[in-house]
Amino acid sequence: MGGKYRITGNKYPKMRRPRRRGRLVGLTVASVVVLGVGGWGTLQLIDVFTGGGRKASAAGDGDCGVKTKASPSPSAKPLPEPRTITVNVLNATTRGGLAKKTADELKKRGFKIGDVGNATKQYDKKVKGTGLLLGPATALDTTLPVLGTQLPGAERRTEAAREGAAVDLVIGDGFKELATQQDADRALTKLARPEPAPTTKKGC
């Protein structure tokens, strides 16, 4: 044995291999580092090919999405009150008494009543709808819309050569009755204070 060990009796010294614990620890650390670097590289490649993943998508959604907001309503011209509007009520149908009955109802609602009777030959028995609202050119966006709240669906016309501020309500064949007081008041309020119209803006 080269003099290193002295053998006595029946027992022999146990010959153990040098421990390799340090080597195993080193291999484990190296494996973890390799796996970590490989995983990080894989994530970088995914980001390159997908354009940044969810963060990029979220940013894109915020910048390029469709945005809707209410635009302020334009300053409208003040509408005349019913008490300042003179209405001529004319009957273009074959049913008697419609002009007077309609004029009485309009008067209760605050309108000033002018002429009441049958329609002129130009319109007599020629108005097929619910009615026809006639007025001067200046009445198109003032008195006619206000009177129109009382008879929804009535046609509106202006006559350039017409004089005076009075307007005509010509009762047509499709007429049954004026709008209810509640519906007319609601329509008049909406007409005076229209809601702002939504505007849509698309990015990118």
How does the SSE layout of this entry go?
Layout: H1 21-50, H2 53-64, E1 66-70, E2 86-91, H3 98-108, E3 112-118, E4 131-136, H4 143-148, E5 155-159, E6 167-171, H5 181-192, E7 198-202
Domain LytR/CpsA/Psr regulator C-terminal: 84-175
Protein name: LytR C-terminal domain-containing protein
Pfam families: LytR_C (PF13399)
Summarize the structure.
With 204 residues, the protein is α/β, with parallel strands linked by helices. The protein has helices spanning 21-50, 53-64, 98-108, 143-148, 181-192; strands at 66-70, 86-91, 112-118, 131-136, 155-159, 167-171, 198-202.
Description:
InterPro entries: LytR/CpsA/Psr_C. By secondary structure, the chain is an alpha/beta fold. It has 5 helices and 7 strands; from the N terminus they run H-H-E-E-H-E-E-H-E-E-H-E. A 5-stranded mixed sheet has the order 3-2-6-4-5. A two-stranded antiparallel ribbon has the order 1-7. Strand 2, helix 3 and strand 3 form a beta-alpha-beta unit. The radius of gyration is 46 Å and the shape is elongated. 18% of the residues are buried.
